């Protein structure tokens, strides 16, 4: 097996554990966590937003450290932080403890992505880097898909689930240390954040809005299914499997962008995200539309994050870790704002209005368009 292929497999797995387990599995188990710790929608939104806030803080530090101490050390740290954060969730006795553990676990995702972009830039041929990056990014979907069967197998025992996820993160720590190169992508004199040129400003606008809209499903998909359909652990587990399995389509982001250009792919999957939010949360939701909407959301979200990854790395081609960081940081800032807002709207106006508002928000991200330097169809 070539070093590049090993890197792709380990990177795919690292993203799966950090994003699928440490960050997004919280939404899967939220109904059971809420029942045990009496959180309520508003507090649930604040705690979920804490996960995204942890990501925001970590991804800036990750890009900075990757450019100075190398990809391997930062990637190993991501796996360890995921393990500690998920262990904290498993042991949480109250909402305060839970909030801290969720924030720590969510920060692992911020640590994981920049070193993988730097490692790909160092170890993979240039003509295959977009495809490799989008494939690694699609690891999110496998982590989400696997968390669903775990929930079904253990009957919603969320503490046991997060203990199992912790063990997986510890195993992956060893694999990451063995396979990720110690690559840096910039001299130690580089600034943490790049100049905000036109490319970067457009990316920031789009990523922020999409991130905010996505919390309707990531943070409240389980709650919406419970409110609309009375679903328990089994139904929500199936929903999460649908989200994750369909998200594997996001591995094709590099190919689609190369063929159709960023703008067309961007608009198309923003529309898909808006439809998915309505399918799960509107008054017309049925079991069929909920599962279909979850699958559509999974494909749209992972595809859009792949688009922003390519957009950022292209805009800052000499600093791939920082280019990825800008797009992914802004997604998380949007999620930090979006989760509490959706929780408040859900509490005050109900699921139908909240879903319609957030579907509309998703579409406005398409107002940001790439300029001529971004990838266009060949």
Quick take:
With 378 residues, the chain is mainly alpha-helical.
Sequence-ordered SSE layout with sheet pairings:
Elements: H1 3-23, H2 25-37, H3 41-69, H4 71-91, H5 95-123, H6 129-137, H7 139-154, H8 158-179, H9 198-218, H10 221-229, H11 233-247, H12 253-260, H13 262-281, H14 287-315, H15 320-349, H16 351-364
Helix pairs in contact: 1-4, 1-5, 1-6, 1-7, 1-8, 2-10, 2-11, 3-4, 3-5, 3-15, 4-5, 4-8, 5-6, 5-15, 6-14, 7-11, 9-13, 9-14, 9-15, 9-16, 11-14, 12-13, 13-14, 13-16, 14-15, 15-16
Top keywords for this entry?
378 residues; mainly alpha; 16 helices; globular
Provide the residue-averaged pLDDT. 85
Oligomer: single chain
User: Structural class, judged by helices and strands?
Assistant: mainly alpha
Number of helices: 16
What's the total number of strands? Answer: 0
Q: Note the gap between the termini.
A: 31 Å
Cα-based radius of gyration, to the nearest Å:
19 Å
Major β-sheet profile: none
Helix and strand element order = HHHHHHHHHHHHHHHH
Portion in beta strands? under 5%
Percent of residues in helical segments?
over 70%
The backbone outline, from C-alpha atoms, is globular
Which ranges are low-confidence, i.e. pLDDT below 50, for 5 or more consecutive residues?
A: 372-378
Description:
This protein has 378 residues and is mostly helical. The chain is 81% helix and 0% strand. The chain contains 16 helices and no strands. The radius of gyration is 19 Å and the shape is globular. The two termini are 31 Å apart.
């Amino acid at each position: 097996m070539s070093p590049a292929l090993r890197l792709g497999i380990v990177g795919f797995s690292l993203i799966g554990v950090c994003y699928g387990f440490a960050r997004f599995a919280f939404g899967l188990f939220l109904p059971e966590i809420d029942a045990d710790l009496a959180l309520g929608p508003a507090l649930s939104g604040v705690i979920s937003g804490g996960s995204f806030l942890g990501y925001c803080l970590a991804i800036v530090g990750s890009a900075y450290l990757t450019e100075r101490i190398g990809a391997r050390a930062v990637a190993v740290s991501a796996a360890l932080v995921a393990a500690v954060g998920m262990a904290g969730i498993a042991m949480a006795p109250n909402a305060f403890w839970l909030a801290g553990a969720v924030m720590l676990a969510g920060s692992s995702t911020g640590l994981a992505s920049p070193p993988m972009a730097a490692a790909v830039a160092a170890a993979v041929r240039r003509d295959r880097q977009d495809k490799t990056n989008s494939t690694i990014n699609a690891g999110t979907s496998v982590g989400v898909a696997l968390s669903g069967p775990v929930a079904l197998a253990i009957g919603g025992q969320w503490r046991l689930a997060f203990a199992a996820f912790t063990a997986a993160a510890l195993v992956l720590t060893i694999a990451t240390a063995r396979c990720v190169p110690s690559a840096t992508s910039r001299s130690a004199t580089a600034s943490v954040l790049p100049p905000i040129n036109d490319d970067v400003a457009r990316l920031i606008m789009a990523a922020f809005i999409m991130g905010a809209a996505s919390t309707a499903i990531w943070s409240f998909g389980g709650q919406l299914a419970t409110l609309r359909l009375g679903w328990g652990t089994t139904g929500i587990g199936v929903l999460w499997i649908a989200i994750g399995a369909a998200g594997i389509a996001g591995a094709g982001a590099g190919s689609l962008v190369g063929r159709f250009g960023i703008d067309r792919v961007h608009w198309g999957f923003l529309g898909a995200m808006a439809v998915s939010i309505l399918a799960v949360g509107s008054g017309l939701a049925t079991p069929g539309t909920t599962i279909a909407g979850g699958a559509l959301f999974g494909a749209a979200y992972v595809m859009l994050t792949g688009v922003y990854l390519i957009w950022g790395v292209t805009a800052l081609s000499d600093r791939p870790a920082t280019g990825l960081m800008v797009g992914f940081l802004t997604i998380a800032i949007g999620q930090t704002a979006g989760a509490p807002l959706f929780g408040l709207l859900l509490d005050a106006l109900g699921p139908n209005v909240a879903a319609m508002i957030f579907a509309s928000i998703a579409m406005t991200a398409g107002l940001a368009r790439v300029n001529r330097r971004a990838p266009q169809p060949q």
